[in-house]
Amino acid sequence: MTSVRVFPWFVLLAVLGCGDRLKKATFKMHGSVVDAEGRPAGGAIIILQPVSLDAKDAARPSATVMEDGAYALTTYTTGDGAPAGEYAVIVIWPAARKTPFEPAGGDRLGGAMARVDPNSPHITVTREPDQLAPQITLIPQKKPH
Q1: How far is CA 119 from the centre of its chain?
Q2: What would the pLDDT profile of 52-77 be if each residue is shown by its tens digit?
Q3: Which spans in the chain are helix H?
Q4: Domains along the sequence of the chain with CATH
């Protein structure tokens, strides 16, 4: 009778213990982001969208750009990098708030880089221990004529 009560716990522990095995290996990558004039784009948010989607891996490496324009990619834990592969880059650059009580502003880029399109920058992560990504230059919103 005891084995019948214990069995469900072993199954639960086995299932919960499999989580780390589903994670892909990550490789550290850092880089920089500048605006169209070459100034650091502090506060911009980068999200990498895999070019070939893997339904088993919903992770999207991301980073928040520091004031000096530098960033380090994160997938599972801070600064761990990204799984090897080719990615399209999505960037959102939230407008600065004057006070913490002010509502969040829109995207300084007006959505120009908020979705993947044929002009999106690409980053390839290889199985190297520490990689430097090509610099990302932000594309400003196109103004209507």
Answers
A1: 18
A2: 876 666 779 999 999 999 999 999 99
A3: 2-16, 19-22
A4: 24-137 (2.60.40.1120)
